[in-house]
Amino acid sequence: MHIAIRGHHVAITPAIEQQITTHFSKITQHLDQVCSMQIKLQKDHRLNLKSHKGQDNHHAEVILRIPGKEFVAKSSADDMYQAIQMLGEKLKRQLEKHKLSHQKFSHHTANHHVSHELVA
Predict the structure, then answer these.
(1) pLDDT tens digits for 78-89?
(2) Which CATH architecture has domain 3-119?
(3) What gap in Å lies between CA 27 and CA 17, rounded to an integer?
(4) What positions belong to coiled-coil segments (predicted)?
(5) Who has the most CB within 10 Å: 23, 45, 84, 103?
(6) With contact defined as beta carbons under 8 Å apart, do 79 and 43 qualify?
(7) Which of 18, 77, 19, 5 is nearest to 44 (CA)?
(8) How much helix, strand and coil, in percent to the nearest 5, is found in the chain?
(9) Residue whose C-alpha is closest to residue 95's, from 16, 41, 26
(10) Among 16, 21, 15, 19, which residue's Cα sits nearest to residue 3?
């Protein structure tokens, strides 16, 4: 799977790229038909309250597309690696929720067809 990584006011170092590739490949390894994944990293350099330590000035965003569905997650932290880690956790929760609801729907549909067959 190809992951498009963009940086805004942030250099995409080999270490950051490796962390993203490793972490997000694990998250999506059981997901069929990933159309695309885009990750945007940004650092807020403005001289205001957000530029001080403890103000979460490193931002990460992911957009993951599968057929018929798009997942978007955002995170902010003092450190880019921490923002990427939090981003992965948010995306993982969304995918688990989607998988669970998809399984419930499939199970409900299967039971629904069985009940009609028994009635007929």
Answers:
(1) 899 999 999 999
(2) 2-Layer Sandwich (3.30)
(3) 15
(4) none
(5) 84
(6) no
(7) 77
(8) 50, 25, 25
(9) 26
(10) 21
d(CA 7, CA 101): 33
Residue 49 has a CB neighbour count (10 Å cut-off) of 9
Contact 7, 20 (CB under 8 A): no
pLDDT band of 116, cuts 50, 70, 90: very low
Residue linked to tokens 């963009």: 6
> Who contacts 98 (Cβ-Cβ below 8 Å, separation ≥6)?
69, 71
* Number of other residues whose CB lies within 10 A of the CB of residue 91: 23
Q: Give 20-57 as a 3 state SS string.
A: HHHHHHHHHCCCCCCCEEEEEEEECCCCCHHHCCCCCC
